[in-house]
Design goal:
The protein is an alpha/beta fold and about 425 residues long.
């Protein structure tokens, strides 16, 4: 039996910093403030709503996770972040249109008071967006130092005892790791040399880790999963998690695919298409940004179904993913799945799923849980990749060479 962890108490204020304060971040912040005021329940948040069973079922010991685990209280959270477009969270929320006016009105004063910091932004990585609130520094090393200064100033001005950072920004253009990402020394040299292979999200990760701030990546782009960042997190003793919030269509895949495998039903193909009209959809309308998301989405089925072990059932799957930008949908994403399975004696069957979801409504509680659990991990002296948080992520990082686990139910077991 492993020794129990010595967890420092969650005393004082916890600052939650989000690079990107658009639809996801503004919805997350508004929901937490509303929950603090007793206006809503934090639905979708495992840390706040779920129970954990202790002992045998007949022992009837099922406390709420937040009552059993020493998590930070919602009342102790302080919010901040960076955005290249919106000046404050209220304007961001109104622009994104996720929440109705009746839900924004009771929390509008607090949202308006959360002023965004100027962002590290480079349009080469998100061609569909134009940043107007960006840092004056042009050199990437100077940008990193400016972010480190922002973090420290936020900590002092808001009297925070601890900080966490969760990337809620747009998906960056596709890239593969290069020599500048091999180790911390190479990355720091690349920052000074303004290396073109260093993206804005990677500068945020570096600044967070150098400030001893845990970091989670909610988008599919390369950042916290790079060798240099894994090395830096281990050296600084900081927990990290990535990547890509598991919200709509991929959530459904990680629910359905384990069921097919449990029943030993075969799979011929899985065609997935999405339509969405928010800022995320606009960014993903660019082929390079879509490729980053596509790679994240396509990796799910192979890991769950293990075609190398079950070639007759899953050895020849056509898996197709499409995303289409359709402005009238706004944040209300629609995910269509056409699934071709087969059963006894090879007879084919079909399943159709039409998931009319709200992307930011599903992502907001993930931001909350990642923030609270990363803070817990840090107080418990944990560092590096937190594989137990893979439950929340489409393309989770693996702490070992065994690889990532995508089965939602196995992920849930690890989480609890």
């Amino acid at each position: 039996m492993s020794n129990p962890l010595d967890i420092a108490p969650a005393t004082g204020r916890l600052g939650v910093l989000t690079p990107g304060m658009g639809a996801v971040a503004s919805t997350f912040i508004a929901g937490v403030i509303a929950a603090r005021q007793g206006l809503t329940a934090p639905i979708g948040s495992v840390s706040q709503m779920a129970h954990i069973r202790l002992g045998n079922r007949d022992a009837d010991r099922n406390p709420l996770i937040r009552e059993f685990v020493p998590l930070a209280e919602l009342d102790d959270l302080v919010f901040g972040g960076w955005d290249p477009i919106s000046p404050n969270v209220l304007e961001a929320a109104r622009t994104c249109g996720v929440l109705e006016d009746k839900d924004l009105a009771p929390v509008s004063a607090e949202l308006e008071g959360i002023v965004t910091m100027d962002a590290v932004f480079d349009q080469r990585w998100v061609k569909k967006l134009e940043g107007t609130r960006v840092k004056a520094e042009s050199n990437k090393w100077d940008q990193a130092q400016a972010l480190i200064a922002d973090i420290e100033r936020f900590r002092i001005e808001n009297e925070c005892d601890r900080l966490v950072m969760v990337w809620c920004g747009s998906t960056e253009a596709y890239q593969e790791a290069s020599a500048v990402h091999d180790n911390v020394e190479a990355f720091e040299a690349g920052l000074r040399d303004d290396d073109e292979n260093i993206s804005p999200s990677q500068i945020y990760v570096y600044a967070a880790l150098m400030s001893d701030v845990p970091f989670a990546n909610g988008a599919p782009n390369l950042s916290v999963d790079l060798p240099c960042m894994i090395e830096l997190a281990a050296h600084r003793g900081v927990p990290i998690a990535g990547k890509d919030f598991k919200t709509g269509q991929t959530l459904m895949k990680t629910l359905l695919a384990p069921g097919f495998k449990a029943r030993m039903l075969g799979l011929r193909g899985w065609y997935s298409t999405n339509i969405l009209g928010n800022r995320d959809g606009e960014v993903l309308d660019d082929p390079e940004n879509f490729k980053t998301k596509e790679v994240s989405k396509l990796g799910v089925l192979d890991t769950i179904l293990q075609p190398e072990s079950y070639p007759d059932l899953y050895g020849n799957i056509d898996h197709v993913v499409r995303i289409n930008y359709y402005p009238p949908r706004g944040d209300n994403k629609e995910g269509w799945d056409a699934i071709d399975i087969f059963g006894w004696m090879g007879y084919p069957m079909q399943i159709k799923v039409d998931f009319l979801c709200r992307d930011s409504i599903l992502a907001a509680p993930i931001v909350l849980d990642l923030a609270l659990f990363l803070d817990l991990a840090h107080r418990a002296g944990q560092s590096g990749v937190q594989e137990w948080l893979s439950f929340y992520l489409k393309a989770p990082q693996a702490a070992t060479e065994a690889g990532a686990e995508h089965d939602l139910f196995i992920q849930q077991t690890k989480l609890k």
